[in-house]
Amino acid sequence: MRQKTETMLCVAFMELLKKCPFSKITIQKLAGQCGVNRQTFYYHFDNIYDLMSKAFEYELVHESRIYEEVTWEYAINSFLQWMKENRVIIRNILANAELPYLKRAMYPLIAKSISCGSFTQESTQPAIKQQEEFCINFLTIGITQYVLEWVESDFRESIEDIVDHMSWLLQKVYS
């Protein structure tokens, strides 16, 4: 039941983002649309930004199934395609929400995308593991910023070019 309610709230949130500004989406409105009360919302999510992160994850992981393939190229390509197809939602959030929250919602999705590759190597040595985590974190922060600038440029650069640039970078880092 818990999963069903969370899914319902995620879907309702994404639908509302297509119709009204982020700043006009209230917990009361979301709860009402799902037939639950405000307390039920807070049982599942800390706030609207927590819901935003979960809704992105739900859309990309469960609906788009972007991580079913093992290549990072497929995963990041699917992520960028989703962003472009849902430009109304993304622009709505950029215009009406605080940027750090959008970055926080995108971060785990991008990190998971680049982790799909064969670049990283499993290691039991703590020092190497720590370096790998640092590298993924560093790259994810950079790629997140790059993607946001791509959105602000009205998706001017092609997805294929972005994936090619990232491929070149990742090969340089991990070779």
TrEMBL record:
Domain HTH tetR-type: 3-63
Chain residues forming the annotated DNA-binding region: 26-45
Source domain of life: Bacteria
Keywords per UniProt: DNA-binding
The keyword DNA-binding is assigned to this record: yes
Pfam families documented for this protein: TetR_C_8 (PF14278), TetR_N (PF00440)
PANTHER family: ACREF/ENVCD OPERON REPRESSOR-RELATED, TETR-FAMILY TRANSCRIPTIONAL REGULATOR
Protein's name in the database: TetR family transcriptional regulator
